[in-house]
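Quick start: read one record
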Amino acid sequence: MAEAHQAVAFQFTITPEGIDLQLSHEALRQVYLSGLRSWKKRIVRLKNNVITGVYPASPSSWLFVVIAILATMYTRSDPSMGLIAKIQEHLPASGSMSMQCQTVVSAVLFSTLLWLSLIFTMKLCLKQLLSYHRWMFEQHGNVSTTTKVWVMLVRIFSGRQPLLYSYQGSLPNLPVPAIKDTVKRYLESVRPLKSDSEFERMTNLAKEFEDSLGSRLQWYLKLKALWASNYVSDWWEEYIYLRGRGPIMVNSNYYGMVLILFSCLFSHLFFHTRFMFMPSPPPFYLSICSIWAIFSYILPPFLPLSVQWLLRSCIPCCSYQYQRLFDTCRIPGIIRVVHWQDSEYVAVYHRGRYFRLWLYQAGRMLSPREIEYQIQRILDDPSPPAPGEEKLGAFTAGDRIPWAKARKEFFSSGVNKRSLDCIEKAAFFVTLDDDEQGMMGDDPAANVDRYAKSLLHGKCYDRWFDKSFSVVIFKNGKNGLNAEHSWADAPIVSHMWEYALATDSFQLGYNEEGHCKGDVNPSLPQPQRLTWDIPKQCQEQVAQCLAVAQPLADDIDFHVFAFRDFGKGSIKKIKMSPDGFIQLALQLAFYRDRGMFCLTYEASMTRLFREGRTETVRSCSSESCAFIKAFENGEDVEVCRRLIRNASEKHQMLYRLAMTGAGIDRHLFCLYVVSKYLGIESPFLKEALSEPWRLSTSQTPFQQLELFDFVNHPDYITCGGGFGPVADDGYGVSYSLIGEKIISFHVSSKHSCPDTDSHKFGTQIRKALHDLLQLMTINQSDAAGSEQNHSSKTQNKKEL
């Protein structure tokens, strides 16, 4: 109990002689150091806010302007054209200052106003420059003169060394597309999916909407676009994520995997090469460094985002979503995500018990070895879970209404509120899982599928699905994360995860005994065990939430695989977009799997605009359907090549339109929200937004290639992450282009649907990739033979 006594700053007892006051000097010292660090962070935050606020100028430029104005006045010139004299006349304390002092003060005030005006002008100019997007529609290597001049001007107005949030005030607002353009693109996207009669009916509904209700709803959207930073993002977060009353586990949350060696000999090669000299490797420790790396991501000098993330080295993207990466939790009932600041601990779950693990001591961050020491204390703790504690996390996995009611009834006061606050206000959540996961054993492929399922939902109660993200560390040293989706999109979490994994693997490392490097302070206080008082009624509600979540988790069918036969390097050689090539392969695979085309969702970003998040690329187009029909019907090779290039170019155009604010679905969604506020029903909007996404896809991009050396460390690659299917009878597909030679896929579906099978669909994806590359790489001399072979395959398929 020595640590508990040290945690108390003072004690007192009442005796016949009076009050005996006992101060703990160590505790007071800790309070002082903690407060000192907190004030230092506030000062740093204030400094960064000032630097960001005056960007693209710098604070030192104010002094330059003041000196220039004073020097000009010294030459008896008046650069203010009489404004300095006017300011001098209205100085409130002019009677107590000499004439010369009044002149200097007036000049300084004028210089400050001039400096602020110049900053405003530069921000406005930069905002106008960043509204130019023609560069995105130009082919690589064929850049227009206009774009070259534009790039030069952007770099001039951007200043030097931008910080993470430097460009926020200069990013343009997301434009509201014209109603007729959105309706036209929508009709084009559904044409290949509807019969002639269905399309005619939808066209009539669209025309009626465009001629009547559409213009009224559009007026409200334009008004919001003038007033708000982004006319989509707040409604998207609220209505798509926060107002949903179903489980967020599987349906909304997603997962990310650790660095993984794609080899059937993973268990042997990884552990026995990395720790071959250990007498007995302690597997849990093999991921402890990742906790330190994640926490250091937000602290100088380790923050990798001190320079703004730029496209093509000069085009900034919005960084708004990074603000809620840590210290953030989704709260049921209040329909919002709550963000705190400066949390210095993480919440840890192990064998049904919750702990608070402080990562700061005496004003400094614990070393990886000290974090390992504290984790070992948690592992060695023999205390059993309190009644109702073990499966408490099931509240966050089930329906939202029961969780909101239980939180209000059982967790609004007393010890339960204090413990719940500790979890929700933690920097992030950590689960020490007793299971072993990864590519191992006699069936490594199936084990990777189970690894993905475990990261997505676990046991339905051993993750805190409301936290911004939860790190999961398995018994054999593998790890991963589960992320809540409402506060940000996958690239934000992916950026942090890449940094943490690279830091863990290539910078921190472990000693010969398998422990984290560094020394340990043995006087560290014991991790704090959270206490609960869970009544029987609350325990029954936990069981009910688990009864809802468990079937949902059991129904998920996952298949994760690495396609190693070729990668984006081979695709670029045939002069096609790697993303467009993969999307066409997915379309072909789905057509072969189901014998039909479907509405396809591909996520793209709109972070070229302030507070931008995502837009939908409707990958299934008339061009892609025409190609697939021709290819499957055994058409001439040259015809198929022409059609596939048309389809790829169409996909690239749709992607560029989505990125530049000319997408379809976010505009229709916001029009629908306005119609609901006005209490008006729109048959067109209702039907357009109720169509199921049977194929939901997303590419997880690598953003920090400099952290991974695929040449010298080819065995260390990350296979990205995945998510659950959007439609009950559809697939969810996440993919990553790893280096030049590997493409990883995460395929999800539901066992309950007889028409879907993730492993079967994975096989179709592999075959489609091979067939498309073969189509584009066969030479002319082999064309006749290939056509004959292609036609015979098609005929055999028809006969079958």
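The chain is about 45% helix and 15% strand.
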